Predict the 3D structure of the following.
Amino acid sequence: MLAAYPTSSSHFPTSPVSFPMSSTSRAASRSSPTSSGAAARKGRACIPCRERKIKCDAGKPFCDQCLRYNRVEDCDYVDAQGHHKTQELEEEVSRAEARLRQLQDERQQRTGAISCQSSRLPPANPFQYGLDQPSPTLFPSNVLIPSLVSSSTGPPSSEPITPQIIQHMVVNFLPVSCEFGWFLDVTRFQETALLPMDHPDRPGNVLLSAACLWSLHLSPGPQTQVIHDRLLSDTVNLLAREVPLVERPYNIVHFIQAELLMCSFFFRNGKLTEGKYHLSKACSLALSSRLYKREIRQSEFMGTYVPSLAPPIDAIEQGDRIRCFWAVYGYDQVWAIALNAPTNFSNESDIDIPWPKDNYRSSVQSLFSSAGAPTLIQFLYYGHPEPIFSVAECVVKAFVLFGKSKDIMSRWKPGVGDEVPVAISDDFVRHDLLLREFKALLTPLGRMASRVSPSDLSPLLLAYSLVDGAIILLHGLFDTTPTHREIQTAAALDIVNLTQEIDVRQFTYLNPLIGVTVWSGAAHVLFGEIFRLRGSSSSPVETVGVEMMLRQRLDSLLEIMAYFARICPMMQFQLSKLEDMRSCI
């Protein structure tokens, strides 16, 4: 899990803790003034006695009057320059507050350019196959997260979202938006985004800002950089200030879409703390809006009534809500694994909405017309997987399988000689069977290339890869056993084969999740197998052919990662770590 606070001993006081002395011991330890009189000369009284306007003997560290009143603190005296300790501390606090305000103002004015320094990124292998290693603190404690502090600095000067910027977004971002967490109906959004500013159906500024930010981010240039930086600042400020209204259901869904876009934006660029923050907000909104429930009703929670969203106006809006929840749920499952953090969803039995579809424009009846068993419970625990009817459903189920593998593996921390508990063993067998049956249902990716559009092919590449990644994760529970290690290696090779079944270079962009989790994880499995072969007692003649094959597949995977790492800082960091390992073999 991400370390949230620094734990260095330098942040804690090193001097022993002092306790107030009794009045007897205090009197014995005090020193009286050297003057012959009991009272202090004029102007030498301590600050507390001055405030009370009583005589003071100027004793140190405490005078007789303060000793009588049993004050805990030592007396404070004015020095030769007319200053006293309390005044100096107050002045120091004032200077610190002024400096803090200055830094916040500078932060507001500076550009939000995204950097990806190696110290701000996760371990080389965030796809952790049972390796319970803590993640380092990604940001020092003095770094201000704009999405957390922006509201305290007053409203920013917003960048106007002109029709030209919106048109730029429609052309440059919407065709590839599915790679970065987009779930809204593209046609409806495109139609409403170009409506006049005061039109009630026009999307809110928070969503338009996030979408236009992505558009400019994907087509950088000196002329657009200033607008890009202003939009970044505007978007995080809008998300921090605005509150979605339950009276406007589409406003809530659009707000979640904006949060998910910013989550992807920050994760892709290595800003993990900010990305995790926006993902948590998206999850909270999805849960509080009850997007996971099939029934549209009010629910009682801890004595208060939490209003659900009003019924959708048509099938398109209903479809947006379904895709909204599953997009948030899927991202939460996979990024929790990449960040080695807990998920935001804990109760599988509460989720009963249907699986998402690719197109809701042809729907003529309510998608919630019949209630059934909870969706995830039915899929994960009962029966056999059913045929998949949409790309969106395939991707979401792959997310679910990936997250479930991690859940099973993380529930057991083996010790020396420990046996797997029966409950975990049963879950392992059930989930392993589900993974094999689900994978058998998938049409080979090479054949799918002629059946679906390129915009659907890249999500399928992610889904197919996640299923193999789920197999690797699950069998990491027994990765010291030859049989399970062979299954892991076979799944890693299948991930490499997927990149060769189709020309992955046809995609301008890919979802960063595939490189950060699946490809990186497969590479680590191949590295591990190569090192194991080199250390085995088998004859080199028997292993040299296998090792050469593994190295060729590994090099092929690293080459693909290098192609997409050019435009993805997060993947570039992962690649640099893998290349360091490659140099050792």
About this structure: The longest strand covers residues 299-301.
